[in-house]
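Hi support team,

I submitted a single chain yesterday and got back a structure, but I'm not sure I'm reading the token output correctly. Could someone confirm the output below corresponds to the sequence I sent? I've pasted both exactly as they appear in my results page.

Thanks,
R.
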Amino acid sequence: MDEKICVFEDVYNDTSARAQAEHEKLGAFGMLARMKLWDRPREGEVALANTEKRYEPFWMAKAARRTSYIRKHVYRIKVEHPHVATVEIFDRKFPVDAHRELQLPAVEECASTTSLVHYVDALGHDTPEKTLIDYAGRYPFREITDSSEPHFIVPTVTAASVLQQVKSRLSAPVEADAISSDEIDIASLTLFYRPVHAFEFTWKDKTGVIEIDGLSGRVNKEGTMLGGAVRRLGNRDTLFDLGADFAGMVLPGGTIVVKLIDKLSRKAPA
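Hi R., thanks for writing in. Yes, this is the structure output for that exact sequence:
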């Protein structure tokens, strides 16, 4: 399983993000505050109190399910000649039924492959998968190999949880009489970090936070300052550790086996 950590390059830098936040700052205190006629924030009354640039994570997993199975099926063949009563095929005679058809019992050997690219917000936010797909497909990023980058948010959705989600999405029932093999190959797991600019504003005794997406420029008027949640990236092995759930992924107890060949070789004792 190929494991990567990638960081997106800024599209909106600190200066442009701050200009956008200043433009939207009156919206940081909620719809009700903006609708009041007698007591609502005005341009000169709102002050910038704090700023924060952080990198928020999301996962991308690539996998494929490969299944070999057997199906029993009856092929129906129309017989055109009106006087045919039986048909001999491979030394076996088959009667023509009332519908002028031959019914040929068969055993089908089948092989199917279902590919999946799965995205999930690593902080558990309700971010549409389409948004994460757009990030990964549209904006430039670079791979990093160490923990020298500051202001990374610790993922709350673990690598093991992501692989369990992959297994769940690929575990649709197979219409089969017998399954010869059923495997999910996890090809890669990538942890992406995207830039987010947060600006905290004060008005009287109230505070509000405007977030600017460092890639799309999207404005979130109900943002938060994460503060203590921001830390250096930390150890790569910790981020990709499958922990106690690892055995359950390799031997899930059903017919499907999840293959993590590289992981297994690294876990094997010397």
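A quick pointer for reading it: Residues 264-270 have pLDDT under 50 and may be disordered. Let us know if anything else looks off.

Best,
Support desk
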